[in-house]
Amino acid sequence: MKVIKKENLNKIISILENDGVIIFPTDTVFGIGSLMGHDSSLQKLYDIKKRNPQKKIPLLVSDKIMIKNIISGSIPESMNKLINNFSPGGLTYIIRAKTKYEKYANRDGSIAVRIPDNDFLLRLISKINKPLFASSANISGKEEINNLDELKRVFKDKVDALIPGETKKDIPSTIISFMEKLPFFIRTGAISKGKIREVIETKTTVLFVCSGNTCRSPIAEEYSRKISNNKLYNFKSAGTLHIENAPISKNSKKIIKGFGGNPGLKSTSLNQNLVDSSDLILTMAKKHKEYVKINYKVDYVYTLAEFSVNKGVIFSNGQFDVVIDDEGFDIFDPVGGSLDYYKKVFKIIKKLIDEIKWKEFDD
């Protein structure tokens, strides 16, 4: 691994153009990356990070013109406003890629782009006139590394160059998706939801939580999606038992299919990103509520029954209104039970969700 000062721009460009992988400082954390259009170095980047090839790597660009060259269609007005207010900076945009960039995009055609607030990177990308594939300098699933000695130890001779420098924050960027008409948060980080909502309107994200995310919470997620305005609301679900990517139960699939929802959901483990990107968390039982409060230190969590019986209102601007007079009750877990048992549970979930008021903010 060569250590190269950021002033040696031509030398760094030469390494990138010869299929090299480099580590560099950004305005958030240290990044590791390669040059777009060089597929051998991109594969090397995946190998170094031990990253699943299905998990596509974001792009760093120098300006709005580069984004226009990547995005399918024109830049949405709301995204333009965010670029003008927060870019360069810690905001990543999920956009639909042009056909010629599909091999770098996710299955739904999405690709992540960001304009970093870092003079070195902006000069580098501008001079080379190509985006950089860039991910956090870590092994996938491990914590980001922001110490030069640790970077040298972990990556040793795996990368071609290390560019020393200071990062501004030990916090990753905020990620917001523009894959639908109304944008929604994927992750909150360097820029808060509040600051973004001062500039544009975004979807309200509601997260349902149960134990395994195979029975109650996916039913609640899909039923809410079915009855509400999907243009204004974004629904997710997760479990506290850290069961990842398991199919939901057979009887949950039957219930969801019965009301016309998507029965193909798979379990997701509750994590910090899901909590941070949500505006309201509704749990199936008090133990889940306490788990979220203790482990994630947030106050926007209620049991579904608690929120519903107290006539909770969810607005389309990320806010909600509820006054707690009744603690509500737990929704019992149907796991392992008969289809009739699941139907009883769904009847309760349906009644509670039907009683929640979903309102546009200017109603």
TrEMBL record:
Locate the YrdC-like domain: which residues?
6-191
PROSITE patterns annotated for this entry? YRDC (PS51163)
Keyword rRNA-binding applies: no
- SMART domains given in the database record: LMWPc
Any Pfam family the entry gives: LMWPc
Entry's EC annotation: 2.7.7.87
Tell me the first and last residues of the signal peptide: none
Q: What class of enzyme is it?
A: transferase
A GO cellular component annotation in the UniProt record: cytoplasm
Task: Tell me which Gene Ontology terms the entry assigns under biological process.
Answer: regulation of translational fidelity; tRNA processing
Which superkingdom heads the taxonomic lineage of this protein's source?
Bacteria
Q: Which reaction does it catalyse?
A: L-threonine + hydrogencarbonate + ATP = L-threonylcarbamoyladenylate + diphosphate + H2O
The record's family statement is: Belongs to the SUA5 family.
List the protein's name: L-threonylcarbamoyladenylate synthase
Q: Which organism is it from?
A: Candidatus Mcinerneyibacterium aminivorans
